[in-house]
Specification:
The complex is a heterodimer of chains A (300) and B (361).
Chain A lengths: L2 H7 L12 H28 L3 H5 L13 H9 L8 H33 L5 H11 L4 H14 L6 H26 L2 H9 L4 H9 L4 H17 L2 H6 L7 H9 L8 H34 L3
Helix pairs in contact in A: 2-14, 4-5, 4-14, 5-8, 5-11, 5-13, 6-8, 8-11, 11-14, 13-14
Chain B lengths: L6 E12 L2 E12 L3 E5 L6 H9 L6 E6 L2 E2 L10 E4 L11 H11 L4 H15 L14 H13 L5 E5 L7 H18 L2 E6 L2 H7 L2 E6 L2 E6 L1 H6 L4 H6 L6 E8 L2 E4 L2 E4 L11 E7 L5 E2 L8 E6 L2 E4 L3 E8 L2 E8 L9 E6 L5 E4 L7
Parallel strand pairs in B: 3-8, 3-9, 6-7, 7-8
Antiparallel strand pairs in B: 1-2, 1-4, 4-5, 9-10, 11-12, 11-14, 12-13, 14-21, 15-20, 16-20, 17-18, 18-19
Helix pairs in contact in B: 2-3, 2-4, 3-4
The chains are: A mainly alpha (300), B alpha+beta (361).
């Protein structure tokens, strides 16, 4: 047999793989187990929220609902009582929207300009400024709670939505500035130089050169801020008053109300409703998120 | 030097330090109108830093920069009448070629019709009209660099600054664009300052070369002058490939002595009187071989250790006093490894440097 035919008759093409090899069974088995473990609470919540109270009292939390009812969802959204108000979570939802949207916009707008200035315009004292800003990220929130109460009271914003917006914007600043600074540092410096030679100023370069190249990092910042601010409980409960409590605080008040029977189905529905916004954000922008995190991490 | 139209860029006593590191030290440089000046040096010598200072992208620590007689030391880059081309092209990725080229004009609020006209003219000069609507990502390296040059061209600047513009291109394209740059300079007659670490680019493009080391200009002269009459040991060693053959020895009674070599220096054009420790340098192509060696100022026999035929000529590595000694001989000559060669050197072709201050004698 010549060498040529040996090549033709020997093994060729991709190496055959068995679907049920020991390696695959172990690998996928582990993955499925872990996935189930994480999915279980969500399953329980959804199933419970679709049951009526009599069915829940039977005690089997894993069984699927015999009779599907959406009443708990309706009640959680529009009828549940907290304090004097009996208009459900919808009030908290809109409060949260009114808090989150301006907070996210303000904090990202300021932090991106901060990061841009720190990365490209090496002004005197930039490093000191940056160090102080980053140091701020390590101070525990609890330490600052009361001083900020006084501060807000003095400027007349205590207990208002805008007071909370300011607090969220300030507390998002260190991490967001770091994020943007690292991203802008990773962009080629020569682009910035070229734009300066071309006569673009501080804002011209920011808006015309930097912004169009920074979509991924803006998405990352947006996700971080939306989920962070939406999920915030501490600031919401400290700096606002019952009428304008954010959704998380209101959820707590519904779930932890001590009067009457515990309506597990309503509680579950309310909890899912509250978590829905971050969930949707993750699903919609997960891919961009990963890309942006990777881009921001290249250099720094 | 204001009022003197012949000077385009002048730098006086320029200092620049980053913290404790002095990158440029009391640098003086005067570039003539329409001149092609190349700043040449190995990395870290301060050549790009100097260019950035001229462009206004770095704030100087001391000294002044004049462009066309105007003190621009503290002027914004865009107010200096300069255009700059970068190694990485630095094209704005989200803008089309046309957008890239017109960005500077739009910032300067030039009327739309004039922008169109100027972009068209620059595109014509650089032959990139078919690319005007494309994005930079859809261009090849050579096309990108053309667009980058076009961006400087449309702005009608007095001085072009090039920061290693050809370093990211492959060898063939680099040679092509080098020729184009030279033609462009002939055509435009602008002052051009060009930073590179590539000797070939420097030698071929420059009217004058400034060789830099440690933030100081070692020699500023025409390529020919730099090659044949290097001002100091560093320049002699830096320029030329293979480098100049250097031998350390001493000058005594009108002769250079190193080991068994003794050269009569009667024909050497001394710039200053010298005796004592010195370096003797001779370029590989100035070493005479065979019959030509007869009657030279010094004659000796050497053994070919490595032979490198390059086609047009052949490089032969030998050693003199245990130091590498290169010869460049005609490509036709038949020399094989191990051959003994008769070699000769004339003092008139050589360069002598004082061993102390390393400057030319």
């Amino acid at each position: 047999m010549t060498e040529a035919t040996a090549v033709l008759e020997g093994a060729h093409g991709p190496k055959p793989r068995r679907t049920f090899s020991r390696r695959n069974i172990f690998l996928y088995g582990t993955l499925i187990m872990v996935a189930l473990y994480y999915m279980l609470p969500l399953y329980v919540m959804i199933v419970t929220s679709l049951k009526g109270m009599p069915e829940i009292r039977l005690g089997n939390i894993f069984s699927p609902p015999v009779e599907i009812t959406f009443q708990p969802w309706v009640k959680a959204w529009a009828e549940a009582c907290t304090g004097l108000n009996c208009d459900g979570l919808s009030r908290g939802f809109w409060n949260s929207v009114r808090i989150t949207v301006p907070s996210v916009i303000v904090s990202i707008a300021i932090a991106s300009v901060n990061g841009y200035a720190l990365a490209n315009w090496r002004f005197k004292g930039a490093n000191v400024f940056f160090t102080i800003l980053i140091f701020g990220a390590f101070i525990p929130y609890q330490v600052m709670l009361y001083p900020i109460v006084i501060l807000l009271r003095e400027i007349g914003l205590y207990g208002s939505l805008w007071g909370l917006v300011i607090v969220h914007s300030i507390f998002g600043m260190p991490i967001l500035t770091l994020l943007f600074r690292n991203y802008f540092t990773s962009l080629p410096e020569e682009l910035f130089k070229a734009a300066r030679v071309d006569g673009a100023g501080f804002w011209g370069i920011y808006f015309q050169i930097m912004l169009p190249m920074s979509l991924p990092i803006f998405v990352v910042a947006m996700i971080l801020q939306v989920t962070g601010i939406w999920n915030d409980f501490l600031f919401g409960v400290v700096y606002t008053k019952p009428d304008i409590y954010p959704m998380t605080v209101q959820l707590n008040n519904i779930v932890n109300s001590v009067q009457g029977v515990k309506e597990y189905n309503v509680n579950m529905a309310a909890t899912i409703l509250t978590g829905l916004v971050p969930l949707v954000i993750y699903f919609v922008s997960g891919r961009l998120f990963v890309r942006g995190i990777a881009a921001g991490a290249v250099k720094g | 030097m204001s009022g003197n139209g012949a000077t385009s860029v002048e730098i006086r006593n320029l200092d620049l330090s980053f913290g404790a590191v002095d990158v440029l030290k009391g640098l003086n440089l005067s570039v003539r109108e329409g001149e092609f000046l190349v700043l040449l040096g190995s990395s870290g010598c301060g050549k790009s830093t100097l260019l950035n200072c001229i462009a206004g992208l770095l704030d100087v620590t001391g000294g002044q920069v004049f462009i066309k007689g105007r003190n621009v030391t503290w002027a914004e880059p865009s107010e200096r009448g300069i255009g700059m081309v970068f190694q990485s092209y630095a094209l704005y990725p989200q803008m089309s070629v046309e957008g890239n080229m017109s960005f500077g004009l739009r910032n300067a609020r030039v009327p739309k019709s004039e922008i169109k006209e100027r972009v068209a003219r620059a595109a014509d000069i650089l032959q990139i009209e078919p690319l005007l609507k494309r994005k930079p990502s859809a261009l090849s390296g050579g096309q990108r660099q053309r667009v980058a040059i076009g961006r400087a061209l449309v702005r009608d600047v007095d001085v072009f600054l090039f920061d290693e513009p050809l370093s990211n291109l492959d060898a063939k394209l680099r040679a092509d664009l080098r020729v184009e740059l030279k033609q462009l300079h002939d055509r435009l007659d602008n002052t051009m300052i060009y930073v590179t670490h590539d000797q070939v680019e420097a030698m071929t493009l420059a009217d004058r070369i400034a060789i830099m080391k440690d933030g100081i200009i070692q020699q500023l002269a025409s390529p020919g002058e730099i090659y044949s009459r290097p001002a100091n040991l560093y320049v002699a060693d830096f320029i030329g490939s293979p480098a100049m053959n250097l031998q350390q020895g001493k000058v005594e009674n009108g002769r250079f002595l190193a080991g068994e070599i003794s050269v009569s220096l009667d024909s050497y054009p001394f710039e200053r009187k010298a005796t004592g420790e010195a370096w003797f340098g001779i370029r590989p192509e100035h070493v005479l071989v065979g019959d030509e060696a007869a009657g030279a100022d010094v004659e000796f026999t050497i053994k070919a250790e490595v032979v490198e035929p390059l086609g047009s000529d052949t490089l032969v590595l030998t050693s003199v006093n245990d130091k590498r000694f290169w010869l460049r001989i005609s490509g036709q000559s038949k020399v094989a490894t191990g051959d003994s060669l008769r070699a000769g050197v004339n003092a008139a072709d050589a360069s002598l440097f004082d061993a102390g201050d390393e400057k030319r004698l």
